[in-house]
Design a protein that fits this description.
Protein name: Integral membrane protein
Keywords: Membrane, Transmembrane, Transmembrane helix
Transmembrane segments: 12-33, 54-78, 90-112, 124-143, 155-174, 181-199
Organism: Prauserella cavernicola
Number of helices: 12
Length: 244
C-alpha cells in the first residue's frame, strides 16, 4: 500500500488509474458478452439463455445508451460535489466504464446505423484503442501542451511549441492516421513521427499532395499484407465481422 500511496495517491494519479481500469475491464466484459450473444444468434437452434440483447418495448437498447448515462451521471456528480478520495476514484471508475460502453459502439453513432458486426464496425475497435492509449498517457501525466509558460524561456516560444504540436496532430489525421493524431495530442512525439512518415494512400493528404511515384510508395507501405495484419489483430481484439 505504501507503493500505491507514493505512486498514485500522492501524485494525484489514482483517479486516472481507476478510470483506465474501469475502461479496460468493462471493454473485456462487454466484448465477451456480445461475442457470445452473436455466436448464439448464428445458431438459432441454441437457446438464448441468460445472455441476450436488452429490449424495452420492442426496441433494442444498445449498450452505448448505458455508457452515455454513466458518463453523464459521473461527470455531473464530479463537477457538482468535487469529491475527495475514495469517492473521486469511484466516479472515475464509473466514467471509465461508461466510456468503454460508449466507444465500443462508436461505429454505430459514426455511421448512424447498426454496423457492430460488419466491416465498418471495426471503427469501434479503433476508438477503443485510441481511448485506451489516451488513458495510459494521462496516467503517465503526459500533458498535451507541454510545460507551464513560466518554465519556458519565453511565452512566444511556448506558444509556438503548442501550435506546432497541434499542427502535427492535424497532419496525422489528414494522412489517414486518426489514432496516431488523437494519441499524438497527448504524446507529442507520436504526432511528430506520424506527420513525418508516409500518408495512407486513401487519405486526403495522399490524394491531394502525392504524385504517382510517392502514391505508389504509400500503396506499398500500406498494402494488402499490412491490412491483413491489422485485421487479424482487430479480429483477436473484438471478434470477426460478418461476411457481406
Amino acid at each position: 500500500m505504501d507503493w500505491y500511496q507514493r505512486t498514485f495517491i500522492d501524485t494525484g494519479r489514482s483517479a486516472a488509474l481507476c478510470a483506465l481500469l474501469g475502461f479496460l475491464i468493462t471493454f473485456v466484459i462487454v466484448r465477451t458478452i456480445t461475442r457470445r450473444i452473436h455466436a448464439k444468434e448464428q445458431e438459432p437452434e441454441q437457446q438464448q439463455g441468460v445472455l441476450r440483447d436488452v429490449h424495452i418495448g420492442g426496441v433494442h437498447i444498445h449498450h452505448q445508451v448505458w455508457g452515455i448515462l454513466l458518463i453523464l451521471a459521473s461527470g455531473m456528480l464530479a463537477f457538482r460535489y468535487d469529491p475527495q478520495p475514495p469517492w473521486a476514484e469511484l466516479l472515475a471508475a464509473v466514467f471509465g466504464a461508461g466510456a468503454a460502453l460508449t466507444l465500443d459502439e462508436f461505429a454505430l453513432w459514426f455511421y448512424l446505423n447498426d454496423v457492430y458486426w460488419s466491416a465498418e464496425g471495426r471503427t469501434s475497435l479503433d476508438a477503443i484503442l485510441v481511448g485506451g492509449a489516451v488513458g495510459v498517457a494521462l496516467l503517465l501525466q503526459a500533458s498535451p501542451i507541454g510545460d507551464d509558460p513560466a518554465d519556458s524561456s519565453t511565452a512566444l516560444a511556448y506558444a509556438g511549441t503548442v501550435v506546432l504540436h497541434f499542427v502535427t496532430a492535424g497532419i496525422c489525421v489528414l494522412k489517414g492516421k486518426l489514432a496516431t493524431g488523437i494519441i499524438g495530442v497527448v504524446v507529442p512525439i507520436v504526432a511528430t513521427v506520424g506527420a513525418i512518415r508516409l500518408a495512407k494512400p486513401t487519405s486526403i493528404w495522399a490524394r491531394r499532395r502525392y504524385r504517382a511515384a510517392k502514391l505508389a510508395r504509400a500503396g506499398r507501405r500500406f498494402d494488402a499484407a499490412y491490412q491483413r495484419r491489422h485485421n487479424r489483430f482487430l479480429d483477436l481484439l473484438g471478434g470477426k465481422p460478418d461476411r457481406p
